[in-house]
Design a protein that fits this description.
single chain, two-stranded parallel sheet, 7 helices, globular, binds coenzyme A
Amino acid sequence: MSDFKDNILQGRVALITGGATGIGKEISRTLGKHGAKIVITSRKQENLDAARQEFEKEGIECLALSSDVRNPEAVEQVIASAIEKYGSLNIVVNCAAGMFLAPIERISYNGFKTVVDIDLLGTYNVTKAAFTAYLKEHGGCIVNITAPFEHWGVSSMAHVAAAKAGVESLTRTCAVEWAPLGIRVNSVAPGFIAETEGVKRAGESMNIPDDKSLKGTRQDLANAVLFLVSDSASFISGVCIRADGSATIDLLRMPVV
Ligand code: NAP
Ligand code: COA
């Protein structure tokens, strides 16, 4: 749990893409534990149902609807269902993503496109659909989960690094265009987060140091998102919170691929 009061999101509705597993699941639980009604979406209905059952046992109201963020119509349908059931949509967290580690010569054209389609275009699809269906009229906030290597060259991550840099840029543009409408748009860039698919995949070829100060928890990430969607962050928009314990600005300790 966080140190925030448990009712700070009372009356709000939050959509979390990729909200049934890993970091997204912890974000969903944390926003739910602080009073929000939760809508989770990703491709696998079995994961969504399992997460929903867990959340409901913890007293969190949850709608779990399958969609592929690459499909704008499917995303629009999820958002329409969420608004129909809960009456509003105040918070959007774009956490769905995919990646695999490979040097450029082993990333096929379709492999590069697939990761950009999920991570960058998927974020755009969900953001645009939520804006059109609800946020444009009512305001709200969006948090995009990125990665802390926008300004780095990152071996074996050409596709995901390019896509996440695109999401950082999109975050800032949305923040600027939509500030007059009362919509805040920020990002959280996780470093190495223990017990996640991302670190499992990265760990297959990266030498991630076994140093606790360089490995965060899923709750650490969820708390950063909670802060950004709370009223305590009411004048914060267009920023990235890098939640990585300093790992990615430490040249001497960065793992070597
Ligand atoms: P994860 O559990 O695999 O989360 C990714 C989620 O995205 C899954 O729930 C997956 O669900 C969903 N997803 C994938 N493709 C999708 C699609 N086309 N449409 C809809 N949903 C889709 O991995 P994670 O490590 O927790 O990563 C969560 C986020 O943190 C990602 O944005 C990742 O880039 C970011 N991140 C993680 C780390 C880390 O240390 N783990 C570091 C930096 C950034 P389905 O399979 O059901 O679709
Ligand atoms: N190495 C090289 N290429 C790979 C690969 C790997 N490990 N995994 C997939 N690809 C390529 C495929 O060969 C295919 O390209 P091709 O048509 O030229 O052969 C392309 O990527 C798409 O693969 P496919 O399996 O059809 O994509 P998908 O849409 O079913 O899945 C992925 C998307 C590949 C990103 C998959 O790993 C995924 O669903 N990931 C979600 C979980 C995740 O990545 N979590 C960590 C979050 S950061």
